[in-house]
Structures are given as structure tokens and as C-alpha cells.
Amino acid sequence: MGSVERASRRLFASMAVLAVLAAGAAASSGGSTSPAPPPRVEALFELRHPQGLARLVREVSNPRSPRYRHYPGVSRVIRRFGASPSTQRRVLRWLSARGLHARIGPTKTYALARMSPARAKRLLGQGSRDPRASRTRHGARPVGYPVRVPPQLRRLVSGVSVLSTAPGAVREGASSAAATIPPLPPAHGSARDRTGTPSGCAEGQAAGFAAPDSSFTPNQYLTAYGHARLHSRGLRGGGQRVSFVEIDGFRRSDIESFGACFGIPIQPIHVHPVGGPTLAPGPETTLDLEVFSAAAPKVAAMDVYEGSSTAPGILETAAAALGRRHRRPDVISISLEGCEPRYDGARAFLDAYNHVFAVAAAAGISTLVAAGDQGSSMCKQGDAALPILATSAPATSPYVTAVGGTNLVLGPANHTLHEIVWNDAPLIFGGGGGGYSLLFAKPWWQHVASTDDARTVPDLAALADPVPGFAIFCTAPECGSFPQQTPGWVGIGGTSAATPLLAGGIALADQAAGRRGQQPLGFLNPLLYSAARSGSRAAAFRDLRRGDNDLGKMIPAAAGGGEPLGCCSAKPGYDLASGWGSPSLTGLNSVALRAGRPR
User: Fold this and answer.
1) Are 581 and 571 contacting, i.e. CB atoms less than 8 angstroms apart?
2) pLDDT, greater one: 302 or 181
3) Which terminus of the chain is more solvent-facing, meaning fewer CB atoms within 10 Å of its CB: N or C?
4) pTM of model > 0.90
């Protein structure tokens, strides 16, 4: 059987399980049908636009290319590969003539128009709606479905998706261990007591569970991955800018309390609401800002783009994170996760979403995305994981760096003695995301990694296990349920923490490149995979060979679980549990400097 056929069969099997469980849910509720559709939907029109962006990304991100790191600016990329002004005007005029207010997305490749489901049906018809993408009762419902392109728009629009405006297309990835965990044995899954030597205020050192299960403090994880060594060279992120894509808010006072405890200066934080008001404080954005501030404490600014967790909302927020003329980011950090098969019925949406990341890659912006916290089973029905192999979107985009999860055992000087793939089963349902994409083919830069034809994740991995987790300060209401010895001081983990940790490391490497007269690192994966298949692998990565992210046994047998799902275990070299392993930022920085060229 060919690799493409295997990927197709995995997709059909996954969607079949979703359909069976949806039918079971309806039957258990007395045979009731799907709930009434939401009052409004968003229709996304994918505008016809010039091709060639993928080729440009390859030219500027391939270390062997003569144009490596010769980036055009974001605005120039959008002008070159967005739809023509004429196409934009004609599509808006067509929609306006039908009483619909529409807006063109920041990348100029799509238009969004809100309408009732009945209006969408009359205007766009049923088209090629995929029966596998029928609405289910719980979290497994698709984010949208395809419809026909109206005949009058066929020269202007290449595809249309009708998108749900219900929240939940993506979810926060911050993970916390249950407060009822008993004292840990020496080894229980990947969970470990805190090791090494913490520092900071007493309350920060006691964050999370009582000792010895208290959480890691910044000095520990910064030493383990090499941030501290780069800091000692004066590399603290100076001049760099980062964008965060978020679906909750934060309290500035929380970030400042964290900084005061650990001696970390907090740089300017700018909030940019997208499509609505500023969001209420929550654990995700708080975690992202505090971990990133520790990793890169002297960045020029942190821009927080806050939007909704709906499918159109997350698209608009990610596009807004490309910034504007005077606030273009060097790095984008996204600590959000979603069940990738849910996107199968909305190809026009997926193309628009992926185009945002391609624009970032072409313009020299590094985008890091959390690979998810449900191991190789990233789909949920309600609050329960489904017994299918699935990865997380948008981590599977071929234009982003997907970050998986690990746990650390540190020596007294906080250097790493052991590192293992994050999988807390059977203690807690949680593990680093990884596996095969169902929607994206293997990109050109990943051919060294596996024999399958699918994009695989993660690319890298770093500390994510919530036992012991990261010490943060958070007074948002949701943080009150997290383990804490002193009010506000909590222990949190997840690939949501690993992502800003490594994003901060890339900001340090970008500063180092600037000192040498080089452009920023930009899209990382071609450099990472090139280094991994060369003699630089040992210097740039710590190869993980212990652990897996298979949580199948933790899924209730009544739901089809109770047995391993068959993926994925750590092994020498690249694997679907940890990618190439965890980075040594000092080694990776040296690799990047050797590959770069003066402006």
C-alpha cells in the first residue's frame, strides 16, 4: 500500500470513528437529531491570487539557496501574492449587491461574510458538502464545510467554506496536574519530582505542589536549554519583537509579580483585540508572557493579539499577528491546539489559514506552534479524547515549527541529566502531541525524517510536563483550580509552555544574527532538518530515546480505548514523539550563524 493511500485510509478511519460516536451520542439522548444550527455562520471566499509563494519560501529558507534569508517584507509579499485590487472589489461588490457586508483578510487572499445558515444555503447551495463532515453533538464537530462557488464568481473565487461561529475550533493548551495527585514514586510515567536547584522568591520556589513536587523556576529551564549561557553573552533579545496569538487575556500585574520574584525585567506589552473587546484574564496568555519574558527578557516589545476561538476568529487573529509596518514581529508564538480532522471539510479555510503562515515564512518570521497536550490522540468528544490517531492544527502546517513535550531530570547546577518524552499516563491524561498529518503532504524540507508521504510532527520538543511544570504567577479565576501553596503561585505545563520557551530562544538567536550583519532566522525547519542530517546534530539537539506519547490505554474502553493506539515512541534520530529531540540553543545558535550571510 502506498504512503498516500495509507494517509487517506487513516483519514477515513478517523472520520468514521467520529461519525459512529456522533450517532451513539444521538441515540443515547433518545434519538434526538443534531442541535439547531447557530444563528450565524461565516462564509469564506478564497480569492484567486498569484501562485509561487511556496517557491519563494523555499528560496529564502533553504540554507543551500543563494537567496537564503533574502526576505522581502510582509507588505511586499502580500502585494505580490494577494488577490488583485480588481478581484477584491468585484467580490465585495457582488456580496454587497446581495445585502451582505464582507471584509477582505489581511493577506488579501480571502473575504469573509457573516450570514444566517438559511441565507448561506440559498446563496451557495449544498455544493460538495462532505457527508463525513456532518455536524456532531460535541467537540468533534467540523469547523466548516465546502459549498459550491456561485457561477458569477468562478473567475474570482477558487473555493468557499461555510464556517461555524461556535467557539472551540481551537483551545488553550496550558495543562495542570490534578490537585489530588499522591506523592510520586521515583518514576511514574514521565512525571518526576523537581530536581536541580531553584532560585527566586520563596513563594515562587514553592509554586505548584508542596516540595519535592514544586515547579521548575526560570533559572532551571533557562540553564537546561542554553538560554542562560546566551544571556551571559549579552544575548537577551534586544531589538526583537514577538507576536502572541491568544484566545484569553492577562493581568499586567501578574506578569510584573512574576518578574519581581525572579529578577526578570518585563518589557512593553501591547494588546491588540481582534474583532472584539479585550479578553478576560486566563492562564494561557499569562503563561506565554511569563515564560517568554524569562527566556528573552530584553525584547523590544511583546504584541498580544486577542481573538475568539471560532474558526474565522483564529484565522483573523493569526493574520493580524503579522503586524503592521512599525510592529512587524521577528517571531510568532502560538500555544493553541485543535483536532486536525475537524478541518477536513473546510479546504478553502485551511488554504487561507496556511497562507498566513506562508506569508510569515517568506517575510523571515519564525512561527512556533504547540503540538498539543493529548499525545497522538488530539481529537475530543466533549471532554473525552477519541480513540483515533490525530495531530493538532495549526501545528501541522508545513510553514510552522511544531513543538512537542518532554520532562527533565536536572543535576545540582541545573544541567540536564535525563530527558524523556512527556506522557503522564496512567497518572494523568496528558502527553506531547505528535504523529502524521491527515491533511498536509510531506514538505520538501522533511524528506529525511520518515518514509511516509505525510507532514509529521513535532519538529522539536522541550519541557512541558505539568509535574513538576513551570512556576508562574496567575490570579485569573481559572488559575484558582491549579495546584498552589501560596495564592497566585501555580504550577502549569503543556506544550503551551514549551513553545514560548523556544520562541524566546529564537529571539536570542535573531539578536545574535543581527550582530553579525545577518537577517533573522525566519522559517526554522529547513535549517533544523539540514543541521540534523549533518555533523551538527549532536551539537544542536539532544536526541530523546525514552518514552512515548501514546495515551490509548487512558481512553475509556467503552469509547473504544483501553489499548495502545500504536503511535508514537522515541527512538534514535527523528521520531513522532519528540521530533529531532530538544534543542541546545547554544549549538543551534552556532549552526544558524554559520548558515547565515551578511545583509
Assistant:
1) no
2) 302
3) N
4) yes
